[in-house]
From TrEMBL:
Disordered: annotated span: 86-106
Record PANTHER family: BLL6449 PROTEIN, OXIDOREDUCTASE AN1597
TM regions (residue ranges): none
Superkingdom to which the source organism belongs: Eukaryota
Protein name, entry field: Methyltransferase
Species this chain originates from: Remersonia thermophila
Amino acid sequence: MKPASDEGQEPTQAPAEVGMHNQLALDQPWKRFWPPVKGGETWKRLLREHPEVLACRFDVNRPYDRPWRRWADPTFVHGASHAVGHVPSSSWRSGDGQPLVPRRDAEQERQALDNQIRRLKLPCVVPKSFHHLAPLEMYEREKPYKCHLPKDCFPGFKMNNLVSENYEVTISEVTGFEHMFTLNTSGFEFAKCPIAVPEWSDEAVQERYLPGIVEWLKKRLGCEDVFCYAYNFRHYDPQQRPAGQQYDFKPPFLRAHCDASASTCQARLRLYYPDNYTELMRGRVRFINIWRPISPAPVEDCPLAMCDFRTVDREDLVPMDIVYPHFVDEAYEVRYNPAHRWFYKRGMTQEDVIVFKLFDSEAREATVCPHSAFVDPSAPLDAPRRASIEVKAIVLG
């Protein structure tokens, strides 16, 4: 099954198409400057300096065209650390789409997981820095947001209102016990996925890697169809990425988050499959992320930590707008909760992957997985910088 074609939307209309929810009481500051009024000063400035912004259209047949990669600030990893007071959990809002269904046996599940950690005697690390969204009163009035727009065209406006706070978090290392964590129970799992890509580039990903991921997921998950709708390369420093590899990159994301909200996944499904959305939602729909290292050396310096779904409460997830030229996406920032349990696998190689959930219409299983890159304090100081690729896919059936 292939996604339907689409001629695109006008940029003045598109922000209402994706990731909207019922948080009408919260201010969305980005709406003060986007979309621009046709003929206004901002519109004229964009027309002169960044006409490609106004020309952006949604095209399901070209999902990997992302001109905003040239505008994004590569140094933005997390907001400024902030010392703030506690905000009661009852006042935090999560989007619609039912990201988490309250579980009657949640506390028993957490106790069982803690008992398992103690029994296995998993080694652990405590990073010097592990960021979550800061519990600011501002977020009682404003919805968190960030914009993938050329900031030089919006003088006086902030491209994001994200502020993070550092917390002490223990992360358990799972080598040898990877099988204890499954996609359906924990929201993530570790696997081997040997797809040979001699040199990483956008062309190699689209022509070789993504078709391999589609076939691998079909076999592993037993699903009917897979559509890869996005991918990102990540690396600390373009001067240190593996020799011969050519790609646009983002730095590792050092803050707890979820890539997409439940409501935006459903809205995105409607964008890609407008003609049979209702039919597809009667079956099972999953949004999956597949993360793997692509650096030659095993990953030591900056691995990816996964939060077990069984330890996540609905109130921990804070919807955030991500503003693109032609649509508005929605993700979850993650509020700190001492009940969370975090895990990682040290020394992942190019054949290793982490598969984790962004959304699952089957609410009786894990539906989402908070995650974050972190600097491993146990890594050698001269550990090679990791490079990685993540692929986001819609899994049908």
